[in-house]
Structures are given as structure tokens and as C-alpha cells.
Amino acid sequence: MKLLVVALALVALSLTACAGTDSYYVYPSDYSNELEYVCLHVMQRGTRRFMVNDQHAVVPLQASGSGVLPELQTDLAPGGYFCGAFD
Questions:
Q1: 20 to 30 Å CA-CA from 59: which of 10, 18, 28, 82?
Q2: Of 7, 50, 22, 14, whose CA–CA distance to 72 is shortest?
Q3: How many domains does the chain have?
């Protein structure tokens, strides 16, 4: 009898613990998808920093010099960007 009461209590506790949680998925934004796409191309050049100029061309920033990636145009706003976590 005591075992039955404990089992029912566990079942009731597990049902109440799971009943109130609503799960949802947050889809990635177009901005984060575009930034990830550009970062993949920039990191292939051995750097994590890049700049987008007024013509929306991507310029990886490297110590050895910078050159435009001719095959890559972006919708990101002109400015400087950093790929990855910045500590």
C-alpha cells in the first residue's frame, strides 16, 4: 500500500512538473544567417575581423594587408565586424 502511494505521488509530481512548460523555437534571423555566411568566408582567409564598404563588398582585415573578396557581396550595413565571441 505504501509503495502504491509513493508511485502515485511520483506520477502526480511528474505530470505537474511537465504540464506548465511551453516550449518554443526561436528561428535565426536573416541578419544572423548573413553574418554567419560572411564569417565562414572571412575565416577561410585566416582572420575573424572584416569590414563592409559602401558598395557592400567584404574586406577581411589582416595584418598582412586587406583585399576585397570579389566573389562575396552582402546585405550587411557598412561598418566593421568581428566573427565569434568577443571577450
A1: 28
A2: 50
A3: 1
